[in-house]
TrEMBL record:
Gene3D superfamilies: Homeodomain-like
Native source species: Rhododendron simsii
Chain spans, region Disordered: 121-144, 344-366
One Gene Ontology biological process: regulation of cutin biosynthetic process
Cellular component, GO, one term: nucleus
SUPFAM superfamilies assigned: Homeodomain-like
Keyword line: Developmental protein, DNA-binding, Nucleus, Repeat, Transcription, Transcription regulation
Places the protein is found: Nucleus
Name recorded for this polypeptide: Uncharacterized protein
Domain of life of the organism encoding this protein: Eukaryota
Length: 395
DNA sequence: AAACGCAACAACCGCAGTCTG
DNA sequence: ACAGACTGCGGTTGTTGCGTT
């Protein structure tokens, strides 16, 4: 289907906005609201197309925009969310109050991406560059290869999950009941989806579906290989694992160790922190999904996965102790920063601190779970109770 | 002081999804 | 159901300012 241009290009001004133009636009919107962007320029006396006005307003003139240097917390959030969401700037922006997607995108492209690259981390995949052997320790080539391989698998799982998410997201919103459910106050769409309500009417699920999908996909071992021996991702994280019965064609990936931040060589300012952040960014929770007993089998991916009542994923104590009380307190950044600060035992470990052997036998399982449980409870709170309109909770 | 290169940021472009008549 | 309008989004480009030579 052909599209007409958004506006008549002839005679319209392009390029940087002048203060006079800004003033006109501000004054008009202040008085009338923006209404239809197409008709706005004419009404406001601007020789601009509506799209240009909208962008100027959205990215620059809006009163609720914070400008200036990004804080460390904001940088952390961007990196973490970028690892999680990729170049979904609008989604990332919803968790950075008063920052626009355009600003975040620019900051990423001009600052963070370069810093990651200098740290030997591929800013696209958030994994060590393949030529970054120097970043690895002397533990041996096999470990290096394993780590890199696992990171690649992780990324593959992530992409796979996102692709399926996109394909199937529409299916989630087809029935009137679903639409009604989505209107429940203080519930993100994912949290208020009808199947969730049916399964757990009093509590939203504890899991961002993408995260769940990643874990489920990633968690399932392939071809034996010792099974799901390690859940340590990026840093020194190992997580309690779930057992999932696939009835469909969910992708199966091997599970091995992944690199930690222990092997850094580059030590420029901020880079160590960045590497650790990346390590954390791939720390995804594992959910005790309990598929064996769930009548809704894993037919084909995200859609089915979202059926699961995620209360099952956590211990009763975790449900009782941390979530509801804290679910909506504090901004995402505040809580995320606190989260990072409180997760030092895996965020950038000295010497790696591998919690698992290669055969899937782990020492200190319970302790580790107890230590990290709150971390993941918190992070799930963050994704389950996003700011209004947050795509973290589904479009 | 001028020229050049680079970084940072604003703005544009075009695609895709949604809305509406 | 369809077409056009509208909007959101991400990639890319253009401009500007600053530092270096």
């Amino acid at each position: 289907m052909g599209r007409t241009p958004c506006c008549e290009k002839v005679g319209l001004k392009k390029g940087p906005w002048t203060p006079e133009e800004d003033h006109k636009l501000l004054a008009y919107i202040d008085q009338h609201g923006h209404g239809s962007w197409r008709s706005l320029p004419t009404k406001a006396g601007l020789q601009r197309c509506g799209k240009s006005c909208r962008l100027r307003w959205t990215n620059y003139l809006r009163p609720d925009i914070k400008r200036g240097k990004f804080s460390l917390e904001e940088e952390q959030t961007i990196i973490q969310l970028h690892a999680l969401l990729g170049n979904r700037w609008s989604a990332i922006a919803t968790h950075l109050p008063k920052r626009t997607d355009n600003e975040i995108k620019n900051y990423w492209n001009t600052h963070l991406k370069k810093r990651l690259a200098k740290s030997g981390i591929d800013p696209v995949t958030h994994k060590p560059k393949t030529d970054a052997g120097i970043l690895m320790s002397n533990d041996g080539q096999s470990k290096k290869n394993t780590n890199l391989s696992h990171m690649a698998q992780w990324e593959s799982a992530r992409l796979e999950a996102e692709a399926r998410l996109v394909r199937q997201s529409k299916l989630r919103w087809t029935s009137p009941n679903e639409r009604l459910s989505s209107q429940a106050p203080n519930f993100s769409p994912v949290a208020s989806a009808p199947f969730i309500n049916a399964a757990a009417p009093s509590k939203p699920p504890r899991c961002l579906d993408v995260l769940k999908d990643w874990n489920i996909v990633w968690d399932k071992p392939i071809g034996g290989g010792g099974g799901r021996s390690m859940a340590r991702l990026g840093g020194n994280l190992e997580l309690p694992r779930s057992k999932i019965s696939f009835s469909g064609n969910a992708p199966r990936l091997p599970t091995t160790a992944i690199g930690s931040c222990e092997d850094e060589i580059v030590k420029e300012e901020g880079e160590e922190d960045l590497k650790c952040l990346i390590g954390n960014s791939t720390h995804l929770p594992d959910f005790n999904v309990g598929m064996e007993n769930n009548p809704m089998s894993f037919a084909s991916g995200v859609h089915e996965m979202t059926i699961l009542p995620m209360e099952d994923a956590w211990t009763p104590e975790s449900l009782e102790t941390d979530n509801d009380a804290n679910a909506n307190s504090g901004t995402f950044v505040e809580r995320y920063t606190e989260l990072l600060n409180n997760s030092g035992n895996w965020s950038c470990p000295e010497g790696g601190g591998d919690q698992s052997d290669g055969d899937g036998n782990r020492s200190g399982d319970v302790d580790f779970y107890e230590k990290n449980k709150n971390y993941w409870n918190d992070i799930l709170d963050l994704v389950n109770y996003p700011p209004a309109n947050s795509p973290m909770s589904y479009p």
